[in-house]
Design brief:
single chain, 96% helix, mainly alpha, coiled coil, 68 residues
Length: 68
């Protein structure tokens, strides 16, 4: 192989490695975004459950007060 061919192969290899690393980074970013969206959905669900529990507790207090 000539020096030019070896340099070309090295450049191609470096380009493939760079592209593979970019793909891995993009995959990690996408995974982080999915986790963030899931965390937001879980947080919203927890807020709804908390509000529902507070309303139930309020109704229970009213019911107890009416009995007393």
């Amino acid at each position: 192989m000539s020096t030019t061919s070896i340099e070309l192969v090295r450049e191609q290899h470096a380009a493939r490695r760079s592209e593979a690393e970019q793909c891995r980074r993009a995959g990690r970013v996408a995974a982080a975004q999915r986790l963030q969206r899931r965390a937001e959905r879980l947080s919203q669900r927890a807020e709804r459950v908390t509000a529902r529990a507070e309303r139930a507790a309020s109704r229970a207090r009213v019911a107890v007060a009416q009995v007393l």
